Each structure stands twice: as C-alpha cells, then as structure tokens.
Amino acid sequence: MSIDDAVPTVADLRAEIARQMIPKYVIAGLARVHPETLGKMLQERKPMPPATVLRIVAALKAHVKSNEMHEVRESSGVAL
Prior knowledge:
Helix content: 55-70%
Structural class: mainly alpha
Largest sheet: none
Number of strands: 0
CATH class: Mainly Alpha
Radius of gyration: 14 Å
Strand content: under 5%
Shape: elongated
Distance between the termini: 32 Å
CATH architecture: Orthogonal Bundle
Number of domains: 1
C-alpha cells in the first residue's frame, strides 16, 4: 500500500506502520490518539473512526517527510 492511495483499511495502516518501522507511540502522537487506543484500533479490537484513519495517514506522510529532510541534512553535513 502506498499512503497516497484511496482510504486505507486498518490492515493497510498496520502494514505500512510495520513496513516503515515506526513505533506506534510516534504515530499516535502525530495522529493525536492515545497509544493504547491506537494499538487496540490497529489490532481491530476497537473500531477506527474515519477521521482517525485520515489523521494516521497524515501522520505517516509527515513522518516520511521529516525523515527525508533529516537524511538530507545528514548527507549535507548540516548540524541541527
């Protein structure tokens, strides 16, 4: 799944988070969801509202973008 596709399923989100090796607490913070609640939603023990899906997709995109910027800084030798 690409995070640019149509509305992803919970399984798609779970796979993308695992594929990118992002800790759930990082995505939870970016998506404004309690980490425990996010874990339950990703395990499909609790329903995931559509608004939360959109916030998680936005969080994944933001995390990818911030990592790309960080990699550019490291390769150019710019210190933070």
